[in-house]
Amino acid sequence: MKVHLFGNALTDVTFPASLSSIGDAAFENNKLTSIDLSVCSSLKDIGSDAFSYNSGLSSLTLPTPNYTGFQYWIDANAKQYVAGSTVSDFGTFYHAVIPYTLTDADVVVTDGVIQSCSYDFTLKDIIIPETLDGQTVTGIRDGNSSNGVFYNKGIKTVVLPATLLSIGNYAFRRNAITDVTFPTSLSS
To answer: By C-alpha distance, which of 140, 149, 141, 139 is closest to 174?
Structure first.
């Protein structure tokens, strides 16, 4: 269920602890003066412009998500924030980075190259370890415009293994990646 209350006269909002996402422009152009997200232990995403154009609102504090592995918050410019940081840029989105490390059961690897991935991507931040299926990961298979290994999975951040030599065509096409560091071993 999505609630979109853009362009109203809201002066106060009480969020439930179970809230996991606030959509783009959800509370834009209201009369909010303060936002309390401290009870939102399930919050993972705050959309772009979610609180823009609220005349009395100058900042909000990013909550501490209660997820194993939570690392930090990240904005659309890949700037990182620790939980409890006060932010004032309401035009960007904020995403809680909660990585999932791929396992042998999630992938098919042949000669060190990831051929496919079956992980359901409920967590949108992934770590690809250096070893999968008993093999050193050196590549990600080539694909085409609609069948790359990680095509259209909703991935937001990815940590690549230091052993990676090549990333195939279209491997990460149609995701929402804001943060990736390429290993120095990568050649293509």
So the answer is: 149
Tracing tokens 């990815």 back to the chain, one arrives at: 158
- pLDDT of 160 > 70? The answer is yes
**Position 154, amino acid:** G
Dihedral sign of CA atoms 180, 178, 19, 32 in order: positive
CB atoms within 10 A of CB 128: 20
What phi and psi values does residue 115 have, to the nearest 5 degrees? -95, -35
> What's the mean pLDDT in 83-102?
95
Distances (CA, A) of 67 to 26, 74, 96, 130, 140: 24, 16, 10, 24, 29
The pLDDT value given to residue 2: 61
pTM, full prediction:
0.81
- Is residue 25 within 8 Å of 47, Cβ to Cβ? yes
User: What is the C-alpha to C-alpha distance for residues 40 and 89, in angstroms, rounded to an integer?
Assistant: 19
Cα distance between the two ends of the chain: 42
Stretch 102-116: mean pLDDT: 97
